[in-house]
Design brief:
6 strands, alpha/beta, about 280 residues, 434 Repressor (Amino-terminal Domain), Endonuclease, Chain A, globular, single chain, six-stranded mixed β-sheet
Amino acid sequence: MAKGSSGSYQAIWEFFGTELRRHREDTGLSQVELGARVFVSGTYIGQFEAAIRKPQLDIATRIDEILQTDGIFERLCRKLIDDPRYADYFAKAAELERLAAKICEFAPALVPGLLQTAEYARAVTLAMNPFASDEYIEEKVSGRMERQHILKDATRPVYWVVMHENVLRVPVGEPAVMARQLEYVAKLARERTVLVQVLPYAAGAYALMTGSLKLMEFEDAPPTAYTEAVYSGNLLDDPAVVNRAHSAYDLLRAASLSPEASLALIESAAEDCRRCASTT
C-alpha cells in the first residue's frame, strides 16, 4: 500500500501493537506492570497493543528502555508521527486527539475536521490548494478521514462542539455537498456521538473572536489547549493559559443555542442547501 493511505498507517500501528505484546510477554510483564513502569495505566498498554490508542513519543521511548528493544518503538513512533497528511504544526495535536478522554472544540468558519465528510474535506483542501495535484488532495483528505476513527472506537472521547452560524451559512463545495455535510453533523448529534451547539449571529460579539480552539482532557495527563491561525498552530499546556481558554469556552457555550435548538437550525440549513441544489 502507498505510504499516504489510511490503511497503511493503521497497519503499522497494528504492527506496533503486535510487537509490543510479543516483547512484553517475552519479558514476563503484565500490561499493568509495564504500564506502571512507563507511567501509564495497564488499560492504556492494552489499547496500544490493540492499536486503539497511539502512544506518544516519550512513552514509546520509555517502552524501549524497559523492554530493551533497541529503539524499535521509538523509530516506529517517529515514522508515524511524521505523517505527511497533516501540517507540521497540527501533527502533535492530531496525536493528542487520539489520547483524549474529552475534546471541546470551537469552530468559527468550518465544520471541524473530526466531523467532515470526505467531499466537504476535499472542497476545503482544494480551495486552500488550487494548484495541488489530485494525489496531494487525496492524501490530505485521507488523513482527515483517518482521524475520525476515534469517534468510532469503544473508548471514544466525550466530544462537544460549538460552531458559529457562519459554518452553516458559508457554502463549501456544491449545494448538495454542503447539504450532505450538515445532514451528517445532524446525524451524529442525534446519535449522541457529539454534542453540538450553534453560536448564532444574534449573539453578536463573542469570546474567542480571534480564532478556533480545541480543548483536550486526558485520564492521566494535564489538559491541553490547541489554537490555530493561518498556517500556524499552538499547543498550550501552561495551566493558567488553559484555564483562561476553558473560561472563554464556557462563555461561548452560554451564548450559544441549546443542543435541541442547534440541531433544528442545522437541519433547517441543510434543507435550504437541498432546495438550492434542486434548482441548479
